[in-house]
Amino acid sequence: MELTKQNIMNISCIRSKPYGRLKHRLCVVALLSAIAMCLTVGCKIPQQGMLPPKATPYYTYTRSSGTDSSQTLADIPFQQFYSDTLLLKLIDTAIRVNPDLHIIEQRIEAARINTSMAYKNLLPSVNGVVSAGLDRYGFYTMNGVGNYDLNKSNNITPDMKVPNPVPDLFVGFRAQWEIDAWGKLRLMRKSAQQRYLASLEGRNLLITQLVAEIANLYYELQALYYELEVIKKNIELQSNELTIVVAQKEAGRATQMAVHQFEAQIFNTKALEFLLRQHIVLVENQLNFLLGRHPQPINLGINLMSQSLPSQLKFGVPANLLSRRPDMRMAEFMLQAAMADVEAARKMFYPSITLNPYVGFNAFTPAQLLNVTSLAAGALGAATAPVFQQGRIKGQYQIANTAQIEALYQYQKTLLQCVNEVVAEIKGIEFLQEAFALKEKELQQLRRALATSRDLYVAGYANYLEIITAQRGVLDAELSLVTLKKDLFQAHIRLYKSLGGGWR
């Protein structure tokens, strides 16, 4: 800033007139300029992005007698849905120390900070400035002639004469404020807020998946241990049968082939025992990994076959999935964020209106820098519109629009997946319950057949192959019954998860 006579008069005018009037005039000028630019480039601004027609699926589960539109399993906290206290302890440990949850919490914090930054973009930025410059003007320039002529004036004191080169010292504040006339910055803030909410739902989704996975592994481990007890019991029974056959062989009532058959049956059952033990180790390691700890035995609660399933299931209607399932809410928030991004990209075609005020001490002499007479203030209002950047801005807008359409399809896909999962689990539970009841009856009959075959064999009315076949049938039926009970528990867990339960 050159301290010419004209500049001194300008500073005097700024001091003598209210600063608010100057700011008002600058705003009016900037707004008029923005309107003119809008008329110039408005024909190039694209229309609002259009989404494809929504094909939102709607499916009711009227085939199930348990349908209730007022309440579902998802309304029950997992502390009440799972009755096993040892399982609840494992879930609490996982929620507290699971590495994936710690990772997503950092992402949530980053999203929160991004939201705060988007909000602050609406506020003016103020910077403290200390600057120094030096300009040497040529004698045959406007500034050179003006300063030379000014130094000859009788209206200035000796300390006001302008040297050449001219120092330029400034200490004060400069601000920059983009006026959000079109709502672009507010749309960016909305997009950041929606993504932050989506990240919170992402954490809820992870908790839901973690709770379900731990419960699945827990009941699978219980089933494996129960199968191990069944196999040990069968090995003991088969050993007793082998002892009887050996005694009958020595008495001449059985052959060596019968002895070999019973021995082979015991070896097969013992091999199943070791395979089960190996499977148990794998499941325990998976559980320990989710719990964030090294391999160690897992304490189990009540015997699996002694535990009861929920007596009454309430499923609700598909519309309730929108408010209960974290993945549905997450997809909805991401869709809202994408829509805000499209509108913000569209607003980029409009002119940007900015104000750049400053206030501070400005002088070319260090001795006079902090003098009250060196106080200077000013403001600049500007409206800038893209002219040669239309192609780049249009490309950004098209990218945002395709992301919006992708978010919509993801929303529809998630909704379709939600409904299909619920319907599949409801019918699956019904079929598994029927199969379990029939398998119990089958096991009762096979146990009776085994007892009868033993009596007939001792009396000499049946051969050893009938006993072996009956024993194998009982063992297979017992193992199948345990598997069906485990499948029923896991089907309830999947239904609870698919309805949106497990994160509360």
Condensed summary:
This protein is α+β, with helices and mostly antiparallel strands. The protein has helices spanning 5-16, 19-41, 78-81, 85-97, 99-120, 142-151, 184-250, 256-290, 321-324, 326-347, 390-459, 464-498; strands spanning 125-135, 166-179, 352-355, 358-363, 375-378, 381-384.
Total beta-strand segments? 6
Instruction: Classify the secondary structure makeup into a structural class.
Output: alpha+beta
Order of helical and strand elements: HHHHHEHEHHHHEEEEHH
Rounded mean pLDDT is: 81
From the spread of the alpha carbons, the general shape counts as rod-shaped
Beta-strand fraction estimate = 5-15%
Biggest β-sheet description: 6 strands, antiparallel
The helix count comes to 12
Rg for CA atoms: 41 Å
Uncertain residue segments = 1-20, 37-43, 52-69
Helix content: 55-70%
**Terminal Cα span:** 64 Å
Structure description:
This protein is an alpha+beta fold. The protein contains 12 helices and 6 strands. It has helices at residues 5-16, 19-41, 78-81, 85-97, 99-120, 142-151, 184-250, 256-290, 321-324, 326-347, 390-459, 464-498; strands at residues 125-135, 166-179, 352-355, 358-363, 375-378, 381-384. Strands 1, 2, 3, 4, 5 and 6 form a 6-stranded antiparallel beta sheet that branches. Residues 1-20, 37-43 and 52-69 have low confidence and may be disordered.
Looking at this protein, list some descriptive labels.
six-stranded antiparallel sheet; 12 helices; 6 strands; rod-shaped
